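Entry 12.
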Amino acid sequence: MGILAFCRVMKLEFDVDLYLLSQKFTVDYPPEKFPELMHKHGRPYTCLLIDSHDDYFICVPFRSDIHHKNAFLFTNTERSKRSHSGLDFSKIVIISDTSYLSDESAIVDQDEYAEMKRNLPTIVNRAVNYVDTYINHITGKKTLHPREFARRYQYSTLPYFHDVMGI
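Predicted 3D structure (tokens):
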């Protein structure tokens, strides 16, 4: 696994890289059973892979059209001028099985790549916080108001990965 960057956020260290999810992931997580996952026939699930050094990886997908606040929206890219492109935290995939990572190169728009790199600490912090807040709510460590939880996680993919997260 190549490392795009080493990122330090609030004294925590993270390795990050770009990946495509493999065909094995698509087979193991079919759209009929996992409708919130971004299944588009013939289109790869391109994601920013965050290794938080837990027992799993956080895969934050790139999306071309996001209409909610649970995301990092690009602001200075060509595509962002036409649509709301960014990294979507609500569609995060949690994996521990590295066979779910494709050997194919992940390709993203150069201007989105540059904006992502400039904002890595912010993106990593927000993605990890999104996952941690969910885990804390589900385990009862720190619960959110039901409306707040629904607002953040109603369409989230995180319930599909309780086993991987150990909850």
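Annotation: The chain has six helices and seven strands. The first strand starts at residue 5 and ends at 9.
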